[in-house]
UniProtKB/TrEMBL annotation, chain A:
PANTHER family named among the record's database cross-references: POLYSULPHIDE REDUCTASE NRFD, PTHR43044
Membrane topology note: Multi-pass membrane protein
A Pfam entry, by short name: NrfD
Protein name: Polysulfide reductase NrfD
Alphabetic keyword roster: Cell membrane, Membrane, Transmembrane, Transmembrane helix
UniProt main location, coarse: membrane
Keyword Disulfide bond appears in the UniProt entry: no
TrEMBL record, chain B:
Annotated InterPro entries: ActD
TM spans (from-to): 56-74, 94-117
Keywords: Membrane, Transmembrane, Transmembrane helix
Organism: Oceaniovalibus guishaninsula JLT2003
Organism superkingdom: Bacteria
Name of one Pfam family that matches: ActD
Protein name: DUF3341 domain-containing protein
Amino acid sequence: MSLTADTPAIRAQNAADEVARAYLPVGMPNPRITATVADPVLEQRFGRLWWIAFVAASGLTVTMIVSLVWLVWQGVGIWGINTTNVWGFAIANYVWWIGIGNAGTLISSMLLLTRQRWRASISRFAEAMTLFAAAIAGLFPIFHLGRPWFFFWLVPYPNTMDLMPQWRSPLVWDFFAIASYLIFSLLFWYTGALPDFATMRDKAKGRIGRKIYGAFALGWRGSARHWHHYEAYYRAMAALGVPLVVSVHSVVGMDFAAGVMSGWNETIFPPYFVVGAMFSGFAMVVVLAALIRRGLGLHDLITMNHFDVMARILLVASLIMSISYVTEWFFAWYSGDYSERFVTWFEFQGIYAPFYWTMLACNCLFPLLYAFRAARRSLPIVIAVAILINVGMWLERILIISETLSRGHLPSQWRVYVPTIWDWLLLAGTLGFFAWMFLLFVRLVPAVSIHEVKERTREAEA
Amino acid sequence: MTQGLFMARVRDADDLLSLARAARELGFETADAHSPHVIEGMDAALGLRASPVRPAMLVAGLVGAAAIFALQWWNSVYGYPINSGGRPLNSWPAYLFATFETGIAAAAIAGFVTMLWKSALPRPHHPIFEAREAAAITDDGFFLTVDMNDRQARYRAVELLRARPEVIAAEVVE
């Protein structure tokens, strides 16, 4: 509805209507919304591209399994880590993956709480991304333990050794953060998908499909009583999701900040890590959104406006990252501490300097393109910059670890970190495993929240 | 136990709201609405009481957090005191990480269980699935159902609700 009288309230209302129309398929009847999302899963054949991607992802998944088996067989010595660089790719990958996961929860929770209508189209696969990324992230600290088969010693349980975990250890904080986060993400994602599983049950043609989707739908029948409790739970979960994400990535930041190493022992770390997580995760959502939109033909539900608004968020996050870097440099100088200043000098001039400059370009320079509307409206540019951000954020994670550890307090211990083939294979393997799970997800689960798009579209039409 | 279900289909969410209000005014306590998405105001139209999901989450969250904090405190101060770099045995700020995370996890689990329990799910079989148009609920179907335990309700349901202008189709599922 568009009113013509010119008062601030009506102008605001008209602007809000305009926004809603830009992100929602206003005017599209419910059966078509259902069909747009459900048909690619139920009816269309998988297509050659999907199979090529799936075979490639399966190959990388096998690579991941082989590298993990070899790691357990041989020990962590197959990696590039040594007594100086005790944390290498494993911890960098962990931080990077969990950061990617965090954006999924943030998109889902924060945008639901602030009633952003553009959430409906992207929340489902963003949450799936969270689930897969957090599960992969959890692997790294466990396999980095050296004797991963004793990981359950992190769980406080009555045992014959009469021992409990060391509660002051960041490793134990990590365990609680990841475990809670996984449980939370799984419940949040599944609850949001529950009504859509019922839609799939009712739409499925075959007996087996009906049975399987029916089992996941738990007998959902869209009753007002179901919706009543569903809403109460889903919104409460969204409200818990925001502080949970902040706490999870703060704990990751504390893994570093709780140590006394130069370049780590900084109060800025928790918020700096949270923003970095949002930055890389949103960039990943942009890439996945582009792939899903093309692969499933969801052009009506994921529009250029969605990319535009995500690019704006990335721009802001990039500026915050830049400020964080500058703050780090400033405090290294301002502290007057020799080793702090030395590590900062080492970043710009040391052996890893080319990577550091690349990281600054990826995280601070290229995202500035998003300041221009033409760039935000060009899908190739949006995607290219998003990929660069992911590369830059991964470099940031590995550099935070290696710059500091390679130049510790004891010059006789200085060594350079050189990753081995097994470091690279495991990284590639986890990327493939992520792709593998995601490819299965888009073929088996509605990639967009059907019921939420219907609800928001109705609101926008009213 | 359900002996029959009167089902009336309406065109859209607004009609379902008005029909739900009418059913409630007519005294059908067991009236229920079925829709493919959440309808704002439906809780009030059917007179549903506030959901116990959030109180359950709050209690579980607090209990879970308190329990894990108590474990950490007891374990560090009495169970196995270790002098770690001269830090106090009761280093409570360090214990808050596990406390917070456990509280959230406990609330999430308790809320999920309460949601399913109060919705009487999982329930793979329900009379409504016998209805001709049941599959439409999750697509574009808006239905009002009345649980008919006796002949009286059956009579009234059919007479009063079927006559409403919003209804476009009605059936009785045995």
